[in-house]
């Protein structure tokens, strides 16, 4: 039904469509400022900072899902694989594509000698929470996400 493969630069237009679909689902479409050009440089340039797998529907070869990852370092645990986004288009959810992508990220982490895998899920996203609970994932409470935008950093450092 589905085929998994590593993402290629020519996949980026569809990948960005899926990212925008996720942002709409998460009620934050205005927060996507990424572009194809940025993703080309960041994923396929001289020093790639992310990797990705795509899931294609066999009968159409259409990309219906993506898993984007990168590596982070934990001072407590060592090298970890970080699942930035797992997206399956709405019409294909519940048919196994998400499991294929998630399993592939876990395998990639083991191939790269990572000590584990990390990701985030919104506390109201019950379908995703239930999906991750099937794996026995620890869903931690008590941690707050923190971030500064580039324009905020520039203002602070001026």
Largest β sheet strand count, sense and barrel closure: 5 strands, mixed
Count of DSSP-assigned helices = 5
H and E order: EHHEEEHEHH
Shape: globular
Which percent band covers the strand fraction? 15-25%
The share of residues in helices is: 25-40%
Spans with pLDDT under 50 lasting ≥5 residues? none
Domain N-acetyltransferase: 2-158
Pfam families: Acetyltransf_1
Organism: Algoriphagus winogradskyi
Keywords: Acyltransferase, Transferase
Describe this structure in words.
The protein contains five helices and five strands, in the order βααβββαβαα. A hairpin with a 3-residue loop joins β3 and β4 (78-88). The protein has a five-stranded mixed β-sheet with strand order 1-2-3-4-5. It has helices at residues 12-25, 36-44, 97-111, 126-133, 150-157, and strands at residues 2-6, 51-57, 63-74, 78-88, 117-119.
Characteristics of this structure?
alpha+beta; single chain; 5 helices; five-stranded mixed β-sheet
Characterize this entry briefly:
34% of the residues lie in helices and 24% in strands. The chain is built from five helices and five strands. This is L-amino acid N-acyltransferase YncA.
Helix-strand layout with pairing:
Blueprint lengths: L1 E5 L5 H14 L10 H9 L6 E7 L5 E12 L3 E11 L8 H15 L5 E3 L6 H8 L16 H8 L1
Parallel strand pairs: 4-5
Antiparallel strand pairs: 1-2, 2-3, 3-4
């Amino acid at each position: 039904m589905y085929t998994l493969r590593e993402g290629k630069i020519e996949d980026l237009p569809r990948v960005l469509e899926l990212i925008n679909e996720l942002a709409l689902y998460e009620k934050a479409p205005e927060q996507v400022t990424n572009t194809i050009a940025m993703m080309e440089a960041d994923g396929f340039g001289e020093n790639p900072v992310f990797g990705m797998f795509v899931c294609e529907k066999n009968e159409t070869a259409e990309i219906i899902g993506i898993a984007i990852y990168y590596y982070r370092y934990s001072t407590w645990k060592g090298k970890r694989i970080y699942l930035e986004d797992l997206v399956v288009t709405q019409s294909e959810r519940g048919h196994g594509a998400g499991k294929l992508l998630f399993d592939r990220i876990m395998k990639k982490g083991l191939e790269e000698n990572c000590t584990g895998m990390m990701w985030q899920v919104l506390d109201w996203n019950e379908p995703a929470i239930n999906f991750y609970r099937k794996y026995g994932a620890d869903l931690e409470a008590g941690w707050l996400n923190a971030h500064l935008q580039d324009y905020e950093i520039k203002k602070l450092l001026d």
